[in-house]
Amino acid sequence: MGLTYEEFHQGQSWTTQRRTVTEADVVMFCGVSGDFNPLHSDEEHCRGTRFGTRIAHGPLGMSMAIGLMSQLNLINGTALGLLNLNWDFRGPIRLGDTIHARVTTDALRRTRAGDGIVTLRFAVVNQKDETVQEGTATLLMKAAAG
């Protein structure tokens, strides 16, 4: 089980494992999202862009970062709901880039019902130590059993 509300502390931080963004990831995300923008699906088109090659969807990078955080078993079985996402896209994630996330407890507050709200701050970092995305996820978290 993941952490309960009481087990989170302001400023606590974790670093996820790394993950390489693959062709399959981007193709599957095109299909799942329905977003076949040429920036993600047309290499020939992308040769003429500022990136010079295809890039991953912004929400794909965000989803991967949240998934990598989930693998740390911080919220599995204790998250009661996702309340908010606030995300900034700072730079491209190219196919073949290897990313990881730095996750920090940013804010905590108790709900009237006794559970808690935890805001986690994310920095998504590539293999060059460049922050390509950053943002927050606010979660309703289960309280410890009384």
Write a brief structural summary.
With 146 residues, the chain is α+β, with helices and mostly antiparallel strands. The protein contains four helices and six strands, in the order E-E-H-H-H-H-E-E-E-E. It starts with 12 loop residues before the first strand and ends in a 5-residue tail after the last strand.
Counting helices, strands and paired strands, the structural category is: alpha+beta
CATH superfamily: Hotdog Thioesterase
Q: Give the overall average pLDDT.
A: 97
Helix content: 10-25%
User: What string, H for helix and E for strand, traces the elements in order?
Assistant: EEHHHHEEEE
Q: Poorly predicted ranges (pLDDT <50, ≥5 residues)?
A: none
Counted by DSSP, the helix tally is: 4
- Overall radius of gyration: 17 Å
Beta strand %: 25-35%
| Count of separate structural domains | 1
CATH topology: Thiol Ester Dehydrase, Chain A
Q: Describe the biggest sheet?
A: 6 strands, antiparallel
Gross CATH architecture:
Roll
Q: What is the CATH top level name?
A: Alpha Beta
N-to-C span: 17 Å
Per DSSP E runs of 2 or more residues, the count of β-strands stands at 6
Could you characterize what this model shows?
The protein has helices at 23-33, 38-41, 43-46, 58-70; strands spanning 13-15, 19-20, 79-89, 98-110, 116-125, 131-141. By secondary structure, it is of the alpha+beta class. It has one domain: Roll (Thiol Ester Dehydrase, Chain A), CATH 3.10.129.10. Strands 1, 2, 3, 4, 5 and 6 form a 6-stranded antiparallel beta sheet that branches. A hairpin with a 5-residue loop joins β5 and β6. The chain is elongated. The protein starts with 12 loop residues before the first strand and ends in a 5-residue tail after the last strand. The model has no long low-confidence stretch (mean pLDDT 97).
